[in-house]
């Protein structure tokens, strides 16, 4: 079972730590996340995550609050896509859905 990225997980990291993450809820993808800190709650989530990200073959993004909490898990995108620790084979993730 993949390990979800949670506030507790991130708070154990030093700012600047890079971790491999993936998502496989509605969409499938993976990227590197460079954690920088936790930001206070907004009107939607209990907290937001200050970080940068890098997809394979792309440049690092700028640092911003791209990621947010939803139902206890750190998520990305408008569909509350939960993030998990790891770097799985994306083709295998797609095949598992068939």
Characterise this structure.
There is one protein chain. The two termini are 19 Å apart. This protein has helices at residues 7-11, 90-96, and strands spanning 3-4, 18-24, 28-39, 48-54, 64-70, 73-76, 81-82, 84-85. A hairpin with an 8-residue loop joins β3 (28-39) and β4. By secondary structure, the chain is mainly beta. Helices cover 12% and strands 44% of the residues. The longest helix has 7 residues, at 90-96. An 8-stranded antiparallel beta sheet has the order 1-8-2-3-4-5-6-7.
Strand and helix map with partners:
Elements: E1 3-4, H1 7-11, E2 18-24, E3 28-39, E4 48-54, E5 64-70, E6 73-76, E7 81-82, E8 84-85, H2 90-96
Antiparallel strand pairs: 1-8, 2-3, 2-8, 3-4, 4-5, 5-6, 6-7
In short:
The protein is mainly β and 98 residues long. Helices cover 12% and strands 44% of the residues.
Number of strands: 8
Helix content: 10-25%
Shape: globular
- What ranges have pLDDT less than 50 throughout 5 or more consecutive residues? none
**What count of helical segments does DSSP give?**
2
Rg over CA atoms, rounded to whole Å, is 13 Å
Structural class: mainly beta
- Biggest beta sheet summary: 8 strands, antiparallel
What is the H/E order?
Answer: EHEEEEEEEH
Tell me the strand order in the biggest sheet. 1-8-2-3-4-5-6-7
